[in-house]
Here is the input.
Amino acid sequence: MAEAVKSEKKIELTTPLLIKTAPGGVLALTITAHFVNDTYSMLTPSLLPILKGKFNLTYLQLGLLTSIPFVISASLQSFSGHMGEKHGLRKLLLVTGFIILGFGFTVFSQAPTYNLMLLAATLIGLGLSTYHPQGISILTASYPSSMRGGVLGLHGIGGSLGFLMGPFLGGVILATAGIKGFKFIWIPAVVTALLVLSFLRVEEKPVEKSYFSTFSITLLFVAFLASINTFFSRGVSSFMPSYFYAKGDSIFKSNLFTTYMLLPGLIAQPLGGAISDKLGRKRVISFGYIVASLLLLLFIRHPSIIILMLMGFFVFFTIPVRYAFIIDLVGEKAGTGVGVMLTFSLALASLAPTLIGFLIDKFGFNGAFQVAAYTGIGAGLIFLMIREGGER
Here is the structure.
């Protein structure tokens, strides 16, 4: 009996997560899952022109179909992270989220009525709310904190590829099979869920801290400042095709030039994350915000694809560092902390196009982009004043 007790003590968890899969395997799984999650998040716009004609919808109705998933996802991010931690259900929520996402998108694309599409859009938002809090907390538990930024940067490659793949995949499906082709859109989500279920081996211990114990003035302030990057990038990138088109470029070139701004994220994220492990999070975030903003001001005066790509590089440079900064701050409540930041990010991302569009109406493209640039510079300077959690 004494031996049995001794044996039990050996396997008792001393941390919230015991990852039994090799770190490289966890990284490969989460990069893949991140790619699939973010591909789905960018699929809806490709369907809108078809849905408008099929159901004779207004642009307001189309806008609701796009906004609802982000609103639902933003609202549930921190709660999703907390529930995974409180009940030790991170892996289960990760798997369930992908199944709901695949099912929701299939119903959305095949729905016979607009009201059913609204319901399906809600399911899509629910599915999108689970990946980042669970996936990032599992990934960062697999590596020492000294490698956190670099690992999150590699993880960010999946997201960058997903953002590029979403519109491309939607276009290919519509061009080859029409909207009926989307009835198989559940397959990537279900395959991802099965991969996680089969190859991610974890033991989880519930985190006893309450939901609100994670919240602090510092966390909310850092989350808000960290999200300025999303406001900056989403607001500017939303109108970059319109900017080039107004300058006289073709619609194809206008969209192609905007894609050039997104491509540097593939190398910027791992590089920014790795550098933050050496130099500290807030320095890298502040530097990235300020340089990206200065490059936007330079672009306004001297429009150039090279300047645009450099600006995109520094926009993406800080993304994994924001996650690492938050996790350094909240410790074992990583899922809830990441969820809080994503709530701010998604909220600002949904507001950014409206606000930037209003500013363009009032002051033109240059005036609106200047406001975005000065906002980024201000956030970068303020970041330097914050005490960095877990600073080395």
